[in-house]
## 1
Amino acid sequence: MSLKKYEAFVRTVELGSLTKAAESLGSTQSRISHILSDLEAEYGFSLMHRSRGGIELTEAGKLLLPKMQAILQKERELAESIGEIRSADAGTVRIGVFTSVAVHWLPGMIRVFQAAHPKAKLEMRSGDYHDVEQWLREGSVDLGFVTLPGPAGMRTVALAEDPLVAILPKDHRLAGLSQIPIQELDRDPFISLLQSSAHDIHRALDAAGVHPNIKFTTKDDYAILAMVEQGLGISIVPRLLIRGRAQNLVVRPLAPRASRTIALAIPAGEALPVVDAFAQTAIDWVHTWETDAATESDTMP
């Protein structure tokens, strides 16, 4: 059944006139009359009586009017939902993220994204590298922040290179150096993330042939900072992690230099437009953040 027939009937009843209904629908009175006659012929009974006094519904018309109004309302809601999906204003983005990005990047990205897509919903799952990659493989997140090389079979977009730095207690024997030779990190107690989440750090250590004296292992990035502050050992962490939290630490670049590349990973397949919209927001936000960070560095005394 054509929705146009329902609309002609409902509009005629609501406006009380064939002429007014035709005007509102951009049609003619004769065309609307013909549509209504076809509808009644199809049903096998009358829906309304038309006279000079206006429109009067039959008992059958009274029964069917709310049904047709409901169908037209659902059709309008469907069209609205389709428009929202196309404009990335509908749906939920499930995001997998590790600590440093969750703390220092994600809030800014969300603020920008929500301003542009206020009806979209976001769900965040925070864990370590291994967690995020597992969620991506399972399909329990729509996109995730990872470090390269990312999980196989997914589209990845490199976002930023994040240097790895050595962190030491303030009274450490190496605190006076301007940079820390990686070879010097094999003597002191070393505090490490779990092996499944320390890929970047161990790649740097392995490349230098260094086998650290791992004394403590944790899944919590910020637990590492607190343990180093208390003089329990030394560690290597990404610079983004200690942004704004290095007051009680000695932070030095490594020699040779080492870094991680933070990227966005999106599983294969067609995602909702809202997912692609968030991914683009993240890419643009990081570009702005890097530009601002470079400007801030250039203006520091």
## 2
Amino acid sequence: MSEQFSRTELLIGRIGLDKLQKARVAVFGVGGVGGYVVEALARSGIGTLDIIDSDKICLSNLNRQIIATHKTIGAYKVDVAKERILDINPDAVVHAHRCFYLPDTADQFEFSQYDYVVDAIDTVTGKIELVMQAKQANTPIISSMGAGNKMNPTAFRVADIYKTNVCPLAKVMRRELKKRGIDKLKVVYSEEKPLTPIVETGSQHTCDTLGNVREGSPRRQTPGSNAFVPSVVGLIIASEVIKDIIAKE
């Protein structure tokens, strides 16, 4: 029994641990939710991880993203995440992709090589494309619905997309996936009604490509977030991935 994963092996056995070590999981989005997915998968012994994100770390990430510290501001998220994964498990294989996933970048990824795909991105068109590509490759996928503007970490549920309610993002996804003939999708969503952000003059901001704070985009309001909601969503997703991989024949 490997000392590093001995506590995990006591719960899932040698066979379960072997399945995790042989698995390859792709995590699209390494922010508030995806960062915690990656963290839990690495600590669970997943052998190969593909991490996909184009963003750099900035000050506004510090309140919720596990890879964000003052030392990492300005660095690419996937680079920081890769270093952290290898610090946790030096035997892991990590493929870091500095990529903003959208339909026009989908051809950079071969979904049939993955044992599981995690959708932790924000863009609806990107999320839909991830689902379509995963389904076409017959690769399991789990999607994170809206985690922004939420305060209750106990309101999150695991369900099929067509059994969700309350969540505005899930509503859009249901409609769009139905149009495309997708009949099921495992998601994590919240039954809490989204809060309205308290916006004061000059309080909205995003980051530029150097990780510096800049004024928020007028195209949409920046959602509020905190340290305990995205982390819970990420850990729930990771637990589903682990359970499904172990259960696979």
## 3
Amino acid sequence: MKKIVFTLIVLGCSLAIHGKKPGVIAHRGHWRVENSAQNSMNSLNNALAIKAYGSELDVYITTDGQVVLFHDSSINGKRIDDMSYAQTQEIRLSNGESLPLLSEVLKEAAKQNKTKLIIEIKPHDTEQKENEAVDAVLDLVHHAKMGKKVEYISFSRNVCERLIAKDSRAKVAYLGGELTPQQLYDLGYSGLDYHIGTMRAHENWFDEAEKLGLTVNVWTVDDEENMKWLIDKGADYITTNEPVILQRLLEDR
């Protein structure tokens, strides 16, 4: 009888864990709507409006120390991290907005308590610039009193590990895909944030991460088949360009 009860408890716990609903992260904000654009103030406000778990954004530091939102490393043959802030303001997003400052985004996000900012600090062309970007971002977050409303991701291990070293409370996930959950745990990461193809190829990493207390986020998932698969696998978060579709899918399950 005791064995039966124990088995039922274990099964119940397993169902509870894998029946959890992942947080919805809007990739570069919720931009697939009219008059919006990736990494714009509009896309941020759209993500806040639908109460997504997170609104992901990409940042670079300019030559004069300003942190701006933009995804691509360069435009018209010139790197963003080789531009002054004034030069970046000559760029226009597809909806006509100029490149937002991270300070502006933090101020807007501070008005609510539902949606976190998932800040991706992009790889810069030198380690020194990456270090300056990390320090500037942490300073902005600190002064905005947004530490509990922000999480960090990067493809650069230098960026991630400087974040971990500078702020032991920061939630930092790696995007690269080549490190195992155990390696990430040993280095002090809070989670992994890997491409759907990587997680399809390493299904065992879901359970390994869970055992180590690491979070699992998967990007960039826009189709329902992969969304359902990730829900069933117990992913903690799903990053998508279609956050409303994912929210509706989660409501139906």
